[in-house]
Design brief:
30% of the residues lie in helices and 21% in strands. The protein is α/β, with parallel strands linked by helices. The protein has one domain: Alpha-Beta Complex (Spore Coat Polysaccharide Biosynthesis Protein SpsA, Chain A). The relative contact order is 0.16.
Length: 290
């Protein structure tokens, strides 16, 4: 079984995308797990979103000190392995609620453990440190992966995170243990550190072929145009208005744009009618309340 761990609060700039992104991931064969903030949905907009998330697993999460609501939701994605119905050999991939996948093959090109778009914050060879024997390696606390997208077996997540079985909220508290202040980077920083110190990432960094790298058994996919720092094959905000069959994902615009549902329908024609109907109503409600 394959799962995708997603999260959002009731902020329309993010929550608007939840039904669409969850539907796309399910279309690709990943069952969505949605961590949602436990308040703020009792509005016309919130009810519209919740109705269109009917049938998806939703885990309510309170704000957990010392993090803000938004940063709590970011960290909550790391708690999916606390759900006891997930088997050890199931795949859990973390992703962003405002990032729409466009090309299924991109997400199944390598076996877990993997990090897709792993070079978002720096090139693999350029940011690698040197081991005692002079070979390069990505080092804990010296390199950070983006959470969009890290794919590990549930057993691996359970080994590197302080999972409290059956209790995602307490798992988030355990992940925050020792954190002294709010941090927008805590989700990625703690995951990168724990992943790079796991046995799967032991060893030197090696280039495999093309955009594929490997450190130990950790598979890494580079998708950033360094030294320019621009994500490759990603539609960013307004670029999504123009169909591009080579794109693998779409970082959707904030504030939300009326054309987004129509644009996504070109990549997912079987869901185009839903995208149009949902998006027209969601965007209208959002415009009326802002």
């Amino acid at each position: 079984m394959k799962y995708v761990s997603l999260a959002c609060d009731a902020n329309p700039s993010y929550a608007t995308y939840a039904p669409i992104v969850a539907r796309i991931w399910r279309r690709m064969g990943f069952e969505p797990i949605l961590f949602i903030h436990n308040t703020g949905w009792d509005t016309e907009f919130g009810r519209h979103v919740m109705i269109n998330l009917d049938g998806f697993l939703k885990i309510p999460v309170p704000r957990i000190e010392p993090l803000s609501v938004g940063n709590t939701m970011r960290v909550s994605r790391l708690a999916a392995a606390a759900l006891t119905h997930i088997n050890d050999d199931d795949l859990i991939i973390t992703a962003d609620i405002d990032m729409a996948p466009l090309k299924p093959a991109f997400y199944s090109q390598v076996e877990p453990p993997f990090v897709l778009r792993g070079d978002m914050y720096g090139s693999f060879p350029g940011c690698a440190s040197l081991l005692h024997d002079g070979t390069p390696a990505l080092i804990c606390a010296m390199f950070r992966f983006p959470l969009c997208y890290i794919g590990l077996r549930a057993e691996h997540w359970r080994r590197i995170m302080p999972i409290v079985p059956g209790d995602p909220t307490e798992t988030i508290r355990a992940i925050n243990h020792g954190l002294r202040c709010d941090s927008v980077e805590h989700d990625e920083a703690c995951t990168s550190a724990r992943l790079l110190t796991s046995v799967e990432a032991h060893g030197p960094l090696k280039h495999v072929v093309g955009d594929r790298w490997q450190q130990g058994s950790l598979n890494l996919i580079s998708q950033t145009n360094w030294p320019g720092g621009w994500p490759m094959r990603m539609l960013i905000h307004g670029e999504g208005q123009h169909f591009n069959p080579e794109s693998v994902d779409f970082h959707m615009p904030r504030p939300i744009a009326r054309w987004t549902g129509e644009a996504l329908g070109r990549y997912w024609p079987d869901d185009a009618a839903f995208f149009r109907a949902y998006w027209n109503t969601a965007s209208l409600i959002t415009e009326m309340t802002q």
